[in-house]
Amino acid sequence: MAGEDSRVGTIIASKYRLDEELGRGGMGAVYRVFHLRVHKVFALKMLLGEVAKHRSIASRFLLEAQAAGRIGHPGILDVYDVGEDADGTPFLVMELLRGEALSTLIRRERIEVDAALWIAMEVLDILSAAHRAGIIHRDVKPQNVFVTEHGETRGVKLLDFGIAKFSGVAADGSALTRSGEIIGSPLYMAPEQAKGEPD
Question: Which three-class secondary structure state does DSSP give residue 98?
Answer without folding.
Answer: coil
